[in-house]
Each structure stands twice: as structure tokens, then as C-alpha cells.
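Board notes, transcribed. Complex of a protein with adenosine-5'-triphosphate.
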Amino acid sequence: MRDLSPETEGSMSTAPHLAHSPPILTVQDLTFSAQKTVLLNAVSLNIREGSRTLIMGPNGAGKSLLLRLMHGLIKPDAGTITWKGRANASEARRFQSMVFQRPVLLRRSVFANLSFALGVHGLRGKLKADKIRAALHDAGLAHLETRPARVLSGGQQQRLSLVRALATDPEILFLDEPTANLDPASTSAIEQLIMKASARGVTIVLVTHDQGQAKRLGEDLVFLQDGEVAETGPAQTILTAPQSEPVKAWVDGRIYLGSKAGY
Ligand SMILES: Nc1ncnc2c1ncn2[C@@H]1O[C@H](COP(=O)(O)OP(=O)(O)OP(=O)(O)O)[C@@H](O)[C@H]1O
């Protein structure tokens, strides 16, 4: 099994510019249980600064839980999350943003959704308004500025969620299946925004089921199966030459039941 654990981190880059990137976030032996069931078990991985890391795996593998834990929305039972070398740093969330599969928008205008988020981050007046207009322009949403956010199409709503998440200049962006319900054109618009953010140096952590998207966007890949890391390493290597049974089956399009085989 390839391993993205801290000890072997230096040897697994596919992206030359990332070969010596330090981890911005390290997960060590993370365990999370609910209702007497272990949902994540001893998960360890590195997110390298400036990288695009994919979290993949079947339904119920624990991908969303892992993302929420890394973002500090829920607390682990055991293990540590280290932000820039500091374990369980309480201030980390200020430098992070998250986009959920279903857009979570305020019942206000497109402009007001951005204005609220930037206001929370301390921006005021003309500086804030200029930043909102530039962000909407970049995302092709400028003409919808006064429209109630809730009446936008699904694709537009997700673009707005992403723009809002990026407007606060996060150092890391967590995305939980942001294109799961979108058509190819909307998916492409979201991917372009992600790639632009990545080019500016924003670290990207993306949960996806979409192998095409994984090939287009992935640099590092973490594959979860039944709450454990089945395989991690460079995305292109795993996608073309997987080592573990669950990932081989997934890449081949075969159904792998694993521990659920008796169900
Ligand atoms: N708060 C909770 N209490 C109890 N069980 C939970 C809780 N949150 C998640 N789970 C369970 O943990 C498992 C992992 O959930 P998670 O949402 O992380 O899966 P996932 O890999 O993101 O799946 P999908 O691809 O379907 O979105 C599931 O079996 C889910 O029912």
C-alpha cells in the first residue's frame, strides 16, 4: 500500500512544484465514532500546501466526516489534526472555507450573500463592494447581483457558494462533492474556479465520486474504504495502477462489497 503518512510524504509527489511542499494540514490516527460504531479508524494523511488532494471512496466510507473533522466542524474521539505544525489549532478555521454538496445560501440577494460572508471577515464599505463585484465578475455571475440567491439554478447556486467561499481568501478550501448534481457545463465552470484558486496557491481538498474529475484535478489522492485509508499517493499513479482490492475494483468499474459482502 502506498502511504501518504507523514514519514513517507517526501517521496510521493506527481507534481514537481509540490515535491518539497510542507504539509499545511496533517491528520494523525484520527478516530471518530457515533452510536457505538467506529466510522473513521486511525486515519492518517498529509495535505501538502498548495496541492489539490482528492478524497474518494464508496458511499458511507467516511469522506464527508473526514472533511468535517479536518475543517473543525466536529471533534474526533482520538487523534490529532495539525495545522501548519500546530496540533488542534483553534484559529485554523479562520483560514479555511468549505463548500457543501448542497449549496447553503441565505434568503437574500446574490450580492448580500457575499456581503455577509465578507462582513464576518471584517471587510467594510467600498473595499468590500469592489471585492464582491470582482468575484461575481470572475464567476460570470455579475448580471445576477440583485437576484435572490434561492431562485438561481442549481449550477449558479453552487458557483455562488464557491465564489463566497473563495472571497474570504482562504488558505485551504474543502469541497464536498461540489459538482455531484451538475451538468457538464456547470461542472466545468466550477472546475475552472477551483483551478484558478489552485493557481493562486489555495490548497484544495475535494471529495468526489467522479473519475473524470479526479483525472482532471487530482494531484494527491486518499481512498477511503469502510472508514479506513485503503490507499493514498499520487492521483495519477493510483488511477492508472491501483494496488489495493477496493481501489482496483473502483478503477475497473467493478462492484466491491468488501466487509459488506454478507449483507
Ligand atoms: N453524526 C452521525 N451519527 C451517526 N452516524 C453518522 C454520523 N455522520 C455520519 N454517520 C455515518 O458515517 C458513515 C460515513 O458517512 P459520510 O457521510 O462521511 O460518508 P461518505 O463517504 O461521505 O458517503 P457519500 O459518498 O454517500 O456521501 C455513514 O455510515 C453515515 O451514516
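Confidence is low (pLDDT under 50) at residues 1-14. Residues 34-35, 39, 57, 59-65 surround adenosine-5'-triphosphate (CB under 6 Å).
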